[in-house]
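Figure 2 data, in text form.
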Amino acid sequence: MSTRMSRMSRMSPRSRAFAVLAAAAIGSPLLLAAPAQSVEMGTVTYSGKVSCETRFPAPSKAVPTQVALSSGAAADRKATDMVDNDGLRTADYGPVDIVVPLDSTFQLRVAVTCKAPGKKAGVFNRQVEQKALTDEDALKVDLK
Protein backbone atom coordinates (compact mmCIF):
# COMPACT_ATOMS: atom_id res chain seq x y z
CA MET A 1 0.00 0.00 0.00
CA SER A 2 1.35 3.39 -0.95
CA THR A 3 1.87 6.21 1.54
CA ARG A 4 -0.82 8.27 -0.15
CA MET A 5 -3.35 5.47 0.09
CA SER A 6 -2.63 4.87 3.76
CA ARG A 7 -3.17 8.57 4.52
CA MET A 8 -6.55 8.52 2.74
CA SER A 9 -7.67 5.40 4.59
CA ARG A 10 -6.89 7.05 7.97
CA MET A 11 -9.04 10.12 7.11
CA SER A 12 -12.57 10.39 8.40
CA PRO A 13 -15.33 10.00 5.79
CA ARG A 14 -16.15 13.71 6.10
CA SER A 15 -12.51 14.74 5.54
CA ARG A 16 -12.25 12.36 2.61
CA ALA A 17 -15.36 13.86 1.00
CA PHE A 18 -14.01 17.37 1.54
CA ALA A 19 -10.67 16.39 -0.01
CA VAL A 20 -12.44 15.00 -3.10
CA LEU A 21 -14.57 18.17 -3.46
CA ALA A 22 -11.54 20.42 -2.99
CA ALA A 23 -9.61 18.50 -5.63
CA ALA A 24 -12.55 18.73 -8.03
CA ALA A 25 -12.93 22.47 -7.39
CA ILE A 26 -9.26 23.13 -7.96
CA GLY A 27 -9.22 21.00 -11.07
CA SER A 28 -12.44 22.37 -12.54
CA PRO A 29 -13.76 25.64 -11.07
CA LEU A 30 -16.71 25.69 -13.45
CA LEU A 31 -18.27 22.71 -11.65
CA LEU A 32 -19.07 24.83 -8.61
CA ALA A 33 -19.95 28.09 -10.37
CA ALA A 34 -23.60 29.10 -10.48
CA PRO A 35 -25.05 29.75 -13.91
CA ALA A 36 -25.15 33.43 -14.80
CA GLN A 37 -28.65 34.84 -15.14
CA SER A 38 -29.08 38.33 -16.44
CA VAL A 39 -32.35 40.17 -16.37
CA GLU A 40 -32.78 43.12 -18.68
CA MET A 41 -33.51 46.33 -16.78
CA GLY A 42 -35.31 49.48 -17.93
CA THR A 43 -36.89 52.67 -16.61
CA VAL A 44 -40.61 52.83 -15.89
CA THR A 45 -42.56 55.92 -14.81
CA TYR A 46 -45.20 55.56 -12.08
CA SER A 47 -47.92 58.01 -11.08
CA GLY A 48 -51.41 57.88 -9.64
CA LYS A 49 -53.57 58.80 -6.68
CA VAL A 50 -52.72 58.05 -3.07
CA SER A 51 -55.18 58.04 -0.19
CA CYS A 52 -54.84 57.72 3.57
CA GLU A 53 -58.59 57.26 4.16
CA THR A 54 -58.63 53.44 4.12
CA ARG A 55 -55.59 52.96 6.35
CA PHE A 56 -56.32 55.88 8.69
CA PRO A 57 -60.15 56.22 8.73
CA ALA A 58 -62.13 59.14 10.19
CA PRO A 59 -61.90 60.86 12.58
CA SER A 60 -58.21 60.85 11.60
CA LYS A 61 -57.33 63.74 9.34
CA ALA A 62 -54.18 62.06 8.00
CA VAL A 63 -53.06 63.25 4.57
CA PRO A 64 -50.50 61.60 2.27
CA THR A 65 -47.09 63.28 2.45
CA GLN A 66 -44.74 60.86 0.70
CA VAL A 67 -44.71 57.81 -1.58
CA ALA A 68 -41.65 55.54 -1.76
CA LEU A 69 -41.40 52.95 -4.55
CA SER A 70 -38.92 50.09 -4.80
CA SER A 71 -38.35 47.32 -7.34
CA GLY A 72 -35.22 45.91 -5.67
CA ALA A 73 -32.20 46.50 -3.47
CA ALA A 74 -30.06 48.68 -5.74
CA ALA A 75 -30.21 52.44 -5.23
CA ASP A 76 -31.44 53.10 -8.78
CA ARG A 77 -34.35 50.74 -8.14
CA LYS A 78 -35.81 53.02 -5.42
CA ALA A 79 -37.47 56.42 -5.63
CA THR A 80 -39.36 58.74 -3.31
CA ASP A 81 -41.88 61.43 -4.22
CA MET A 82 -43.26 64.11 -1.92
CA VAL A 83 -47.03 64.44 -2.25
CA ASP A 84 -48.56 67.89 -2.69
CA ASN A 85 -51.79 67.13 -0.83
CA ASP A 86 -53.25 70.65 -0.33
CA GLY A 87 -54.72 69.32 2.92
CA LEU A 88 -56.75 66.64 1.09
CA ARG A 89 -56.83 63.00 2.16
CA THR A 90 -56.49 61.88 -1.46
CA ALA A 91 -53.82 63.42 -3.69
CA ASP A 92 -51.75 62.79 -6.81
CA TYR A 93 -48.18 61.52 -6.76
CA GLY A 94 -45.59 61.20 -9.48
CA PRO A 95 -44.32 61.00 -12.04
CA VAL A 96 -41.63 58.82 -10.44
CA ASP A 97 -38.99 57.03 -12.54
CA ILE A 98 -37.42 53.81 -11.26
CA VAL A 99 -35.40 51.00 -12.79
CA VAL A 100 -37.30 47.71 -12.97
CA PRO A 101 -36.78 44.22 -14.41
CA LEU A 102 -38.28 44.06 -17.90
CA ASP A 103 -40.32 41.19 -19.39
CA SER A 104 -40.61 39.42 -16.04
CA THR A 105 -42.77 39.37 -12.93
CA PHE A 106 -41.72 41.23 -9.78
CA GLN A 107 -43.24 42.84 -6.70
CA LEU A 108 -43.28 46.64 -6.66
CA ARG A 109 -42.96 47.60 -2.99
CA VAL A 110 -44.68 50.82 -1.96
CA ALA A 111 -44.56 52.72 1.33
CA VAL A 112 -46.99 55.61 1.83
CA THR A 113 -46.42 58.09 4.65
CA CYS A 114 -49.51 59.79 6.09
CA LYS A 115 -49.49 62.59 8.64
CA ALA A 116 -52.30 64.06 10.71
CA PRO A 117 -51.96 67.50 12.30
CA GLY A 118 -50.32 67.21 15.73
CA LYS A 119 -49.77 63.45 15.35
CA LYS A 120 -46.81 61.26 14.54
CA ALA A 121 -46.58 60.19 10.88
CA GLY A 122 -47.83 56.72 10.01
CA VAL A 123 -46.76 54.47 7.15
CA PHE A 124 -48.66 51.79 5.27
CA ASN A 125 -47.07 49.35 2.86
CA ARG A 126 -48.35 47.66 -0.27
CA GLN A 127 -46.93 45.18 -2.75
CA VAL A 128 -48.17 45.40 -6.31
CA GLU A 129 -47.37 42.58 -8.72
CA GLN A 130 -45.94 43.85 -11.99
CA LYS A 131 -45.71 41.72 -15.13
CA ALA A 132 -43.92 42.01 -18.47
CA LEU A 133 -43.11 45.73 -18.41
CA THR A 134 -41.19 47.35 -21.24
CA ASP A 135 -38.64 50.16 -21.15
CA GLU A 136 -40.19 53.63 -20.82
CA ASP A 137 -43.64 52.35 -19.83
CA ALA A 138 -45.78 54.92 -17.98
CA LEU A 139 -48.10 53.29 -15.45
CA LYS A 140 -50.84 54.60 -13.20
CA VAL A 141 -50.93 52.86 -9.81
CA ASP A 142 -53.49 54.11 -7.30
CA LEU A 143 -52.69 53.44 -3.65
CA LYS A 144 -55.26 53.12 -0.86
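Caption note: Confidence is low (pLDDT under 50) at residues 29-36.
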